[in-house]
Write a structure and sequence with these properties.
heterodimer; A: about 200 residues; mainly alpha; 11 helices; about 85% helix; about 0% strand; globular; B: about 300 residues; 7-stranded mixed sheet; 5-stranded mixed sheet; 8 helices; 12 strands
Chain lengths: ~200, ~300
């Protein structure tokens, strides 16, 4: 791979913590747009959806890092944990927009979580991400050893739930959520294939 | 020595912000309608109606930038972005089925001798947002009386234009195009049911369903079919687009009902658009607040079953 080398060389000079510096920028930008009329006539739903979609993009990006190294030789593994933490941050913001700007009524929030399948699915995804976010520090990685990697495979079902959550909330057969779900299934399918190949070898 | 210049203007002489903002909004509206550069289009001079709500209408900008019109795309801003290319003149509506005088009626013909009224109605979308809209139109029953409904007719079916080259959303199978809607005959003959041809006393903007659309204010917004090209009187319940797509979620009646939830979300509350980032939800009213006028149409019906 001739493009991979210069890319990897350039990336080596970028510290992973740089991700955390730029991470809040889109959130601040969306919120500013919402305050100033830039998100249209219904800014609450627009903000909620923008945050959720950005979170889903980051989760797909996390899944794409290993295939990118395998197939294109571009190594972003150093950044994976930071991207994952930022993805969780956006899922949490998405949830907060729903809780504190959209619904607000605790009784209805609880009823919706239990009664509305797409919200149940979304919440399940969030719950799966919680232990991952809590153990995303170096101390946990050292302490948990191989268990850390096993635990963090929860990313796979969590991202799948996120894609299903998106598909379930739209009306009619819309393109975008189907594309996201197809990408997620393809990325998960690669893991499954690698696993089978390892098992056979 | 030059005399010192003074004036007698005070802050009271400054154009109030509301006034110049309104002018800007009118200019923006004119641009949206594609009438800048030409002679200013006269208002429709619609007369007031006792059926209007006294709630404050949403701004022209909000009503023309936040739309569901899947023929132009599923995003709320897609209709405003893509509907400009729709040709609405000439326009004819085919009226057929169980009528005395079937035929293709040109829009001018339909509007001949019709008194346009301003009807400020609440609009409740099935997605749990709402708006207050100053429609301009006339009662559907006036047209139906004119074409002569045969005694055997029980339902009215409507169809939207099918023209993928001008309606890019129709290139995707989001729904089974063309969009179709329907009403029971008594619903269609109700004085609240109008055919609208204008908004804010101006010709209907394309993104709102130009040049002629249905407005049934006690039903979820998707029942109020846009850009109508066909009206058919039948004796059986006609197929309707959303009901065909998902009969569990969208019933034929689709009356606004806070007690019957959409399977995926609650219908108990709604958010009025245009309220900004911190606006709270408000309770949804039975029949969208038009129960006094329309509840009798459904007496004895189980509205959870006939949703």
């Amino acid at each position: 791979m001739n493009i991979a080398r210069p890319v990897n060389d350039a990336l080596r000079r970028v510290p992973p913590w740089a991700i955390y510096i730029v991470a809040p920028v889109p959130a601040i930008w969306y919120f500013w747009l919402g305050l100033t009329g830039g998100l249209g006539a219904e800014p609450i739903k627009a903000l909620e959806h923008a945050l959720g979609l950005f979170a889903l993009k980051l989760l797909v990006a996390v899944l794409a890092i290993t295939p990118l190294r395998r197939f294109a030789g571009i190594n972003l593994v150093r950044f994976r944990r930071a991207v994952g933490v930022v993805a969780f941050f956006y899922v949490a913001l998405h949830l907060s927009a729903w809780l504190f700007l959209d619904i607000r009524d605790p009784a209805r929030i609880w009823a919706d979580i239990l009664k509305r399948p797409y919200i149940t699915v979304g919440m399940a995804g969030f719950v799966l991400l919680l232990p991952l976010a809590l153990t995303s520090n170096d101390w946990s990685v050292r302490r948990m050893g191989p268990g850390w990697r096993r635990l963090h495979r929860l990313t796979y079902p969590a991202v799948l739930l996120g894609g299903v959550h998106y598909l379930m909330l739209v009306k009619g057969w819309q393109m975008a959520p189907l594309v996201y779900l197809a990408a997620i299934l393809a990325l998960l399918g690669l893991r499954w294939r690698w696993r089978r190949r390892r098992a056979m070898a | 020595m030059a005399p010192r210049w003074t004036n007698d203007l005070t802050w009271a002489d400054v154009t109030p912000k509301a006034a110049f903002m309104n002018r800007r909004q009118m200019i923006a509206g004119a641009t949206a309608l594609g009438v800048t550069g030409g002679p200013a289009r006269a208002g429709l001079n619609a007369v007031e109606s006792r059926y209007s709500t006294d709630a404050d209408p949403n701004s022209f900008a909000d009503l023309t930038s936040y739309n569901n019109f899947y023929e132009f795309g599923t995003g709320k801003g897609d209709p405003a972005e893509y509907a400009g290319q729709l040709t609405t003149d000439p326009w004819a509506v085919k009226i057929d089925g169980m009528v005395e005088r079937p035929g293709s009626y040109g829009l001018e013909d339909i509007l001949k001798g019709v008194t346009l009224e301003e009807r400020i109605y609440r609009l409740r979308c099935v997605e749990a947002w709402s708006a207050v809209v100053p429609w301009v139109g006339f009662e559907l029953r006036r047209l139906l009386d004119r074409v002569g409904v045969q005694p055997s007719a029980k339902y009215v079916a409507f169809e939207t234009l099918l023209r993928p080259e001008e309606m890019p959303g129709q290139k995707y199978p989001v729904l089974d195009w063309p969009y179709r809607e329907g009403l029971r005959l008594d619903e269609a003959m109700h004085p609240l049911t109008i055919l609208a041809t204008g908004l804010y006393d101006e010709p209907m903007p394309n993104q709102n369903g130009a040049p002629i659309r249905l407005v049934v204010p006690w039903k979820y917004g998707f029942k109020s079919i846009k850009s109508i090209v066909r009206i058919t009187l039948t004796d059986s319940q006609p197929p309707t687009a959303w009901n065909m797509a998902n009969p569990r979620e969208y019933g034929f009646y689709s009356n606004v009902n806070p007690e019957v939830d959409h399977p995926r979300w609650s219908q108990a509350t709604e958010r009025r658009i245009g309220g900004g980032l911190f606006s709270a939800r408000i309770p949804t009213q039975m029949f969208n607040g038009y129960g006094d006028q329309v509840a009798a149409l459904y007496s004895g019906m189980d509205l959870a079953k006939f949703f």
